[in-house]
Amino acid sequence: MLLNELKEGQIGKIIKVNGEGSLRQHFLDMGLIPGCEATLIKFAPLGDPIEYQIHSYELTLRSDEAKQIEIEKIDEKTGDERVLDNIDLEHPGYGEDGIYHEMQEEKNEPIEGKIRFVLAGNQNSGKTTLFNQLTGSNQHVGNFPGVTVEHKSGFIKGHPDCELIDLPGIYSLSPYSEEELVSRRYILHEKPSAIINIVDATNLERNLYLTMQLMELDVPMVLALNMMDEVQGNGGSILINKMEEILQIPVIPISAMKNEGVDELLDHAIHIARYQERPGRKDFCDKNDYNGSLHRCIHTIMHMIEDHALKAQIPVRFAANKLIENDPFLVEELDIHAKEMDAIKAVIAQMEEERGLDASAAIADMRYLFIDRLCRQTVIKPKVSKERARSEKIDKILTGRYTAIPVFIAVMVLIFYLTFNVIGAFLQDLLDQGIGIFAERCEEWLISVNMNEALRSLICEGVLNGVGSVLSFIPIIVILFFFLSLLEDSGYMTRIAFVVDKLLRKIGLSGRSIVPMLIGFGCSVPAIMATRTLPSKRDRKMTIMMVPFMSCSAKMPIYYFFVQTFFKEISWLIISSLYLLGVVTAVIVAYIGKNTVFKGEAVPFVMELPNYRMPMAKNVLRLMWDKAKDFLQRAFTIIFTGTVIIWCLGNFDFRLNMVSDPSLSMLAYAANIITPIFRPLGFADWRVSTALISGFLAKESVVSTLSVLYGSSEILRQSLSIPATYALLSFCLLYTPCVAAVAAVRREEGIKGSIDLVLFQCVIAWVVAFLMRMILLAFGL
Ligand code: GDP
Ligand code: MG
């Protein structure tokens, strides 16, 4: 029987995990290992993906993915019938002495100077919260060199010589996602002084899996048991000393949210970093398990590759385990010769035969077995967790078969309504007025001091006007991110992805892409920034490509303007058709992309569904501030330059004299050059081209430019036919995103990526506008 054949509430025991490569590794890393029992909780409202419970946490799998897992149906959870005796604390390997960490004795000389900590942990373990507690306000967001995986770093409050780097949230150190690879390379090659591993104490089974791999890296490490307030609130407890004794690293219970235990954590962290105290235990295999087959295999390989590991500066234990897991990057990094590899493969094959499991599964099983034993000895579980029970109740509605989609639509509509009609619009107006008044004062002042006219125009009409219009995006971006972080922190975002995944799969994306796309209806800039949350480069690229096709709020004034002039009676029809046209174009482009450039499957949907939690005001505010700052800093330079260039082009002729008649400017000249391109679309007029060029700054300025250049809507009406107008509207909808959005794309995809996107969108816009015109002409309009 296969895992997807279970019905709701039924339980299956995993017999075999099929599939291959990194996907299979990811299954194993997430705890889907032979012997583990999985309960089917529910199907998503559209029938796919499916929610399961394993090892006491919730996981989603698509039906296709669940098909890879063979099970045997059982009637009742048996717990685990595997022997769960004491962990063998004294366990030297072949030829090695027991080298265990002694926390009391300070053997090493303390290291001097700066200390660099990395903060590593699963998603939703409280990393952001702890990071904010430790660093206060003093931090910096950047990318890891060469990749678009975000990292934050900051100096620890009160310890200006201690830097903290926030690694992306990861589940394992297998190279399943870019984040995991980046984190692993960072720890291995950038040599941080110590690791602070934060784990969610309410979900230790899942979280400790990463901990064990981090310990193998042989970097000084402390374990921060977060969310202890919840554990205690539910009447649970954790035997910290026992856990410390078994793991041989400092274990500190904390509540990042309540700022409890954080100082103690910091003391320990600084101590182990100064004295370079490495984890005492790196060894998680047991010589009594399964006849010691895996134990012997690991230690044999460790000896075989000792020299390579030393040369590559990779901890040998970690290297051996990853080799057994057949990790492609490691074979390369270790530079193992073919002959040696053959020998290693033979050792692994022998182990697989003895163990009756393939190598990757055997390693995952070893880790989970260790965790199981550790938890049985150290964790006193509460009978019911309040948070779990509450989450189940909320999920009855939020992911319920009949309620999920209506609730989702309602939430989205509410967010948009509040952002674009109430709060955001209000703030935007306010800011607009403020900037307006400021600009006016500036102008008055410049006149009063008899400033050169050209310079005055540059400052007032160019910079203040252009930058001002982009600045007015800020309230909307901030408010959208406010809601976005509520969705994300509360845990609803993962549920949304769960609910809509099936729809998005049809165009080769996963459910997680829905959020950026929806935000795209508001503004492309935060939408593009939100693609950060997507787990694969391919998905991120595809989503960024689709986002600008959505009718963002800045396109609305263009629609209104033309509808008022041309289609007064059927205005809503025209506007809705444009919204639809954007979505349809995006879907078709994605569909074509999926079968050509973006071949391959959307990322698998093996995703944890965390409990719902009340988001923390501090985190949310911090995020809003970050985003606003980010937008200002990065987009400002580009927008500023863009504004000045366009202003110069629009106000000077080629002899660099200021022009009074706009048709003589360089901009008009450039517009004239591109005008023939629009002949097939029916609007070959330099004034339209000029408006389109200025629309690159901000879509709204298409309207203002048109009204200036045409003078009256009557003249405009006479110079454009109905099909040409619709073609122009379609073109405005689809052509290059505005400069702020391009700046955002540049940040994600680099200069080349953003130029490619601009060209690509313009071509698509031309093609679609041409088709629209032809269709309307065919109807005899
Ligand atoms: P990250 O995904 O690892 O960055 O986790 P976050 O810092 O965003 O936290 C995830 C959720 O857990 C948020 O809703 C936090 O408010 C919550 N949280 C973080 N630390 C604690 C804690 O110590 N106790 C409780 N009860 N909740 C916490
Ligand atoms: Mg976070």
Briefly, what is this?
The chain is an alpha/beta fold and 781 residues long. Helices cover 56% and strands 10% of the residues. The strands form three sheets. Strands 7-8-9-6-10-11-13 form a seven-stranded mixed beta sheet, sandwiched between helices. A six-stranded antiparallel beta sheet has the order 5-1-2-3-4-15.
Description of the structure:
This protein is α/β, with parallel strands linked by helices. 56% of the residues lie in helices and 10% in strands. A seven-stranded mixed beta sheet has the order 7-8-9-6-10-11-13, with helices on both faces. A six-stranded antiparallel beta sheet has the order 5-1-2-3-4-15. The radius of gyration is 30 Å and the shape is elongated. The relative contact order is 0.08. The model is unreliable at 80-86 and 88-103 (pLDDT under 50). The protein binds guanosine-5'-diphosphate and magnesium ion. Guanosine-5'-diphosphate is lined by residues 121, 123-129, 169, 226-227, 229-230, 255-257, 489, 613, 615-616, 619.
What does the secondary structure layout of this molecule look like, with pairings?
Elements: E1 11-17, H1 21-29, E2 37-43, E3 50-54, E4 57-61, H2 63-66, E5 69-74, E6 115-121, H3 127-135, E7 139-143, E8 150-156, E9 159-166, H4 178-189, E10 194-200, H5 204-216, E11 221-226, H6 228-233, E12 237-238, H7 240-247, E13 251-253, H8 262-274, H9 293-304, H10 306-312, H11 316-324, H12 328-334, H13 338-355, H14 359-378, E14 379-380, H15 386-398, H16 404-448, H17 453-471, H18 474-490, H19 492-505, H20 514-520, H21 524-530, H22 537-546, H23 556-566, H24 571-595, E15 607-608, H25 617-651, H26 666-674, H27 686-695, H28 701-710, H29 713-719, H30 722-734, H31 739-778
Helix pairs in contact: 5-14, 9-11, 9-13, 16-17, 16-18, 17-25, 18-25, 20-21, 21-31, 22-24, 23-24, 23-30, 25-31, 26-27, 27-28, 30-31
The chain binds guanosine-5'-diphosphate and magnesium ion.
